[in-house]
Amino acid sequence: MTEKTAALRQAFEEKLNAVGSSEAAEQLRVEFLGKKGHISALMSELKNVPADQKKQAGQTINELKKYAEEKILEKSAQMHQMEEQRRLDAAESYDESLPMQIECGSYHPITLVQRELEEIFLSMGFTIEDYNEIVDDYNCFEALNIPKHHPARDMQDTYYLSTGQLLKTHTSAAQNTIMRKYGAPLRAVFPSRCFRNESTDACHENTFFQMEGIMIDTDISISNLIYFMKTMLSEVFKKDINVRLRPGFFPFVEPGFELDIECLICGGEGCPSCKNSGWLELCPCGMIHPNVLKYGGIDTEKYTGFAFGLGLTRLAMMKYGVKDIRVFNSGNLKSLSQFISQ
Ligand code: DAH
């Protein structure tokens, strides 16, 4: 029995020396000191030992047990300390030659187009105005010469609140308030989110962006309107843009127009993007209707003005070649983070 114990002790010491981790120390503990471990097995053999040697044999095994317990505790503490140190070293050491991994956000394409337009209009003496997204019927329709039951309302169904207010269908809804705030002469642009009760598809959204502009002064005519539109578009597209005006009906302008630009893809020759016409519809506009000026408190004997309603979302689609309008509200960062200011 004494020999067996001595052999076990030697085996234990050899294995102890080979332990290289806290996990291995635990395995060694189970192997020798566990319920089914070598030392317990040796203890259970005691019953076969002759009575006169039992005491001695028992003592030797107990000594081995105590020894193994102490050694394993010691080793386990050592291993934990070593592992902790390794963790700390790994956290502190870094390689300065590795590329930086900072994730930068990017601006939404509509924001990019909006800011670019704001810069252009600021440089032409316009102020930039902000206005609510929730408005009342008067501002959205009546003050724009669209009385109740006017058929023009059919094209602008929207979302109504229980207060009777509504989500504005166009940026024109701010015209009255801005005219009243500043009076004439006046040059202002006012970008905003707009809403319509529409089913969505590649070209329609229930939430989109426009930028409205008004200029009111003495002797303002259609040529001023064309000049400002051409200048602005040439700046946005970084080249001379040909425009044309077609008659268009909007109750708040008289005369009213659809401003088309020569197709940027085919240069006016006709292609699928412009439905072979060579022109793209971009910006409805016109000379502000005298009723609208009157509602805004402007003297119509003295002043005239033009207004335009630029589709910011539309413009962003053309500028960046986006074929599906739903990309903008999708929240899909893979699509949205590709755009950079040019
Ligand atoms: N508010 C119109 C719309 O969203 C667009 C518009 C047309 C605005 C003519 C104007 C304008 O300022 O003169 O359908």
Sum up the overall morphology in one term: rod-shaped
Q: Return the CATH class of the largest domain.
A: Alpha Beta
How many helices in DSSP terms? 11
Q: How many domain units?
A: 2
Bound molecules: 3,4-dihydroxyphenylalanine
The span between the termini is 89 Å
**The CATH topology of the largest domain, please?**
BirA Bifunctional Protein, domain 2
Helix content: 40-55%
The averaged pLDDT comes out at 91
Computed structural class: alpha+beta
Tell me the CATH superfamily of the largest domain.
Answer: Bira Bifunctional Protein, Domain 2
- Detail the poorly predicted runs: none
Order of strands across the widest beta sheet?
A: 1-4-5-9-8-7-6
CATH architecture of the largest domain: 2-Layer Sandwich
Succession of helices and strands: HHHHHEEHEHEEHEEEHEHH
Keywords:
342 residues; alpha+beta; BirA Bifunctional Protein, domain 2; 7-stranded mixed sheet; two-stranded antiparallel sheet; binds 3,4-dihydroxyphenylalanine
